[in-house]
Amino acid sequence: MARRFKDAGESIYRFGAEFLVQCRQRGHCTRNSAPGQRSGPFAPRRVACGRCGYVKYWQERTVYIGDSPTDWYFRLPLGLQSPCCSQTLWAYNTEHLDFLERYFQADLRERLPNKNGSLASRLPAWMKRAQNRDEVLRGLETLRMRLHEA
Predict the structure, then answer these.
(1) Is the separation of the CB atoms in 77 and 21 below 8 Å?
(2) 1 exposed, middle or buried (CB, 10 Å; 0-12, 13-18, 19+)?
(3) What is the CA radius of gyration of the chain?
(4) SS3 150
(5) Which of 23, 82, 91, 146 could bond 49 through an S-S bridge, CB–CB 3.0 to 4.6 Å?
């Protein structure tokens, strides 16, 4: 039976609650998240490394959402990134990685009409090329292994 992926129109913003980033001091994989009850893109953020004790807070009113493999707040390199097809394959967190795996493992991908802003519609062309599918799936496996090391 064919595996299906149904695009629900999710945008990249759905995956911004938490970022797995590299610690600025030692390069360990650590978490950037909103401490406490508040959430959303402008809630105060904190990055804290459980290995070396590095802690930094963010309380500004601007975020940087780009195509580079960094978090939106501290612009730290993501902990989940790997070379793939002469590009960089990356994911913000477990939920984002799950989404990418579901998309690329699917034999049949369905899109909602008029949802051009969805993450599935905005994935880079190099990732969507049929010739790169196996390498992208191997890259996602590498990211999954890094997730378990964190």
Answers:
(1) yes
(2) exposed
(3) 16
(4) coil
(5) 23
Q: What is the pLDDT of residues 2-41, one digit of tens each?
A: 799 998 888 888 888 889 998 877 666 788 887 766 667 7
- What pTM, to 2 d.p., does this model score? 0.89
Q: How far apart are CA 67 and CA 76, in angstroms?
A: 13
Amino acid at 136: V
Domain definitions of the chain by residue range: 4-149
Q: Look at residues 100, 94, 80, 90 and name the one whose alpha carbon lies nearest to residue 21.
A: 80
Place of tokens 């964190």: 150
E strands in 34-137: 45-48, 55-58, 81-84, 87-90, 108-110
How far is 24 from 19, CA to CA, in rounded Å? 14
Candidates 83, 28, 79; CA nearest to 50 is 28
Q: Tens digit of pLDDT for each residue in 54-96?
A: 888 888 777 777 777 999 888 889 999 999 999 999 999 999 9
